[in-house]
Specification:
single chain; 381 residues; alpha+beta; Alpha-Beta Plaits; 2 domains; 15 helices; 6 strands
């Protein structure tokens, strides 16, 4: 039960990396077709509004007609925006979703047939489905809240005959409850389940199955946390490669080697700062990325090296060659950010190989000018 609660809490706190998700879709040539489908949703929304306006059960009066025209125009702009312009940023995406939610509810309120209007709330599952892919659980919760308020209001209007131009469902409390339950099941139950399992599969795809650390894809998905559009504070990258790991496998077997990797992952997680990410980049190589928070890069790297070298319960000592690089924001930080991650990864990797040449169990700090210089020889630690 505790593990389940922890998993749900982690899901609730998870913030979808919107930019990384768009980049991933684009890399698989999926963004274009998806834009076409999302844009086509505006055509469907416009047709529904026009057909309702023509129908005797649809919008009547000056207010209803004005609302219908506004929604049709909004639907046309939606379609043109998605078809002709690049994929929107996260804020614009949220604004569009809010506008569509309002338009759907407004349509349902203006429709004269109260039963049809109440059932029209099922259309809110369209925006809900979009949210489950591109936005966080908190955004989905706001959407569900709006959906619940909308269906409660529309069911009340249906049962109490507000307005009284159509007798469909008047006084039928059982029918009102049925309509409410239908919408609640679709938006309040189905959408959170889809969002949760979509998150679970995404986390699994971004994780190393053996150590449960992030893999290379997971690293890419978290980089905007450290290399966003603005510079806030120093960032470090520490690369660690276990020394003579092939000998460990040959001597003790691959199952023991896997156990070493699992224990190394646990030691690095414990030694890294809480906001840092720990990654298994492949084989016996690991990477830690985090904010310096004013700390010395040498002290950070040495703490990680020491954590590996003092892993308890192993029949043979395990050490690591450690390379580290740091980025300190400057006056022209925004211009530097595009190449910063690649530069830091390359520098820390070169420093790690320099540590390996020195015999291992050593920390080397990358020189800011792309060179490397040994920080200290800790082979005797």
């Amino acid at each position: 039960m505790t593990n389940s609660r922890t998993m749900v809490r982690t899901w609730w706190q998870y913030r979808v990396d919107y930019r990384w998700l768009i980049k991933t879709l684009k890399s698989h040539s999926a963004l274009g077709p998806l834009k076409s489908m999302v844009g086509a949703g505006g055509i469907v929304m416009g047709l529904i509004t026009i057909l309702a306006l023509i129908s005797h059960a649809g919008q009547h009066g000056a207010a209803g007609q004005a609302q219908a025209v506004l929604v049709v125009v909004m639907a046309a702009v939606w379609t043109l925006r998605w078809w002709l312009l690049p994929w929107p940023g996260e804020l614009e995406s949220l604004l569009w979703i809010g506008g569509v939610d309002l338009a759907i509810t407004a349509n349902n309120v203006m429709i004269q047939d109260r039963l049809l209007g109440a059932m029209g709330c099922v259309l809110l599952v369209i925006t809900g489905g979009y949210i489950t892919i591109f936005h966080s659980p908190q955004v989905l919760a706001l959407h569900i809240g709006w959906s619940v308020l909308s269906i409660l209001a529309l069911a009340y209007m249906m049962v109490h005959g507000v307005p009284t131009t159509n007798g469909h469902g008047i006084g039928d409390h059982a029918l009102g409850l049925v309509v409410i339950l239908v919408v609640l099941v679709v938006t309040g139950v189905l959408l959170p389940i889809v969002h949760f399992y979509n998150w679970l599969l995404r986390v699994d795809a971004l994780s190393d199955p053996l150590t449960k650390l992030l893999n290379r894809r997971g690293l890419d998905s978290h980089l905007p946390r450290f290399f966003g559009r603005r510079c806030h504070e120093g960032v470090y990258v520490v690369t660690l490669d276990l020394d003579r790991f092939k000998t460990v496998n040959d001597t003790f077997g691959h199952s023991f080697g896997d156990e070493v990797l699992v224990r190394t992952a646990a030691r690095l997680r414990a030694a890294a700062s809480p906001d840092a990410i720990v990654v298994r980049t492949g084989g016996e190589e690991f990477m830690v990325v985090g904010h310096l928070h004013g700390a010395d890069i040498g002290a950070v790297a040495e703490r990680l090296r020491h954590a590996v070298a003092t892993t308890p319960g192993l029949p043979s000592a395990i050490t690591a060659s450690v390379g580290a690089a740091e980025f300190e924001p400057g006056r022209h930080c925004e211009r530097q950010l595009a190449s910063t991650p690649r530069h830091l990864f390359r520098s820390s990797d070169s420093a790690m190989y320099r540590a390996k040449q020195l015999g291992g169990n050593t920390v080397v700090i990358a020189d800011p000018l792309d060179g490397t210089a040994p920080l200290r020889d800790s082979r005797t630690a």
